[in-house]
Amino acid sequence: MLQPLPAPPVIEIPCDDAFSVIVQLEDFRHHKLWRGKRLVHAGSHRRGEVAITDLREEWRCQHLSAFDNMRFHVPRATLEELSRESGVRVTGLNPVQAARDPVVFHLAQAALPAMGGAAADTLFIDSVTLALHTHLCNRYGKQEAQPAAGRLAAWQEARVRDYMLANLARRLTLEEVSAQCGLSRAHFARAFKNTFGVPAHAWLQGQRIARAQQLLASGEKSMTEVALECGFADQSHFSRVFKRVLSVAPAAWLRAR
């Protein structure tokens, strides 16, 4: 006679002065969640739904079916830092369960391919992370205020352009680039987009592809040399980005010329 399978374990979630933000990448059929001794959720989460919990409280969970989600650990200190940078006064995030949030879902989808590995684009990940924090503060923050938009001054525009072009082969971070202008990351990210029309990571990627086209056209370097000189992890990474931006592979682009 077949013995029934044991129930999945109830997992104690470690306490921390932080928030847990979970977004479901696929439907989660069955799940239980307790705050202290009180059951606060029993049921499903749909694809694209978000749950936010304050980890200072005692939480336990039980996964009763397969799941596919992305979890963001957001320290309270990070929210305070964002407040200082952008002028948004946030004391915490309001807890939610199974809230549909296309913004968090699409940010998670955008970040997923860029996570880890030699081809990780640090400037892109920084930008996605900053966008996520800003959205969480604006939608779920207990206090909020919209900062005024602005543009880079002429000297800041020139300095950051020269710095990024001079460092195409390096993995730049948002903190490093914003420091060239004497601005916080949040202020710089808004001002850069207002000035150049695109986020910093997108502008940098466009400049890398433009430089790669020049090097390929000269015929003086191999494909691998071009990839490394323009800041790509390897030839495969370069080819993927080149095709995504120009809708044609590097070799085909050369033949077309």
Number of separate structural domains: 3
Radius of gyration: 22 Å
* Order of helical and strand elements: EEEEEEEHEHHHHHHHHH
Order of the strands making up the biggest sheet? 1-6-3-4
Relative helix content: 40-55%
Q: Termini distance? A: 72 Å
Residue windows where pLDDT falls under 50 for at least 5 positions: 144-148
- Helix count equals 10
Question: Strand tally, please?
Answer: 8
Describe the structure.
With 257 residues, the chain is α+β, with helices and mostly antiparallel strands. The chain folds into three domains: 11-140, Jelly Rolls; 154-197; 207-256, Arc Repressor Mutant, subunit A (Orthogonal Bundle), CATH 1.10.10.60. 45% of the residues lie in helices and 19% in strands. The chain has ten helices and eight strands. The protein has helices at 76-86, 102-111, 122-140, 154-166, 174-179, 185-196, 200-218, 223-229, 235-246, 250-256, and strands spanning 11-13, 18-24, 28-35, 38-45, 49-54, 59-63, 69-75, 96-100. The strands form two sheets. Strands 1-6-3-4 form a four-stranded antiparallel beta sheet, with no helix packed on it. A hairpin with a 2-residue loop joins strand 3 and strand 4. It starts with 10 loop residues before the first strand and ends with a helix.
Please render the helix and strand layout as text.
Layout: E1 11-13, E2 18-24, E3 28-35, E4 38-45, E5 49-54, E6 59-63, E7 69-75, H1 76-86, E8 96-100, H2 102-111, H3 122-140, H4 154-166, H5 174-179, H6 185-196, H7 200-218, H8 223-229, H9 235-246, H10 250-256
Antiparallel strand pairs: 1-6, 2-5, 2-7, 3-4, 3-6, 5-8
Helix pairs in contact: 2-3, 8-9
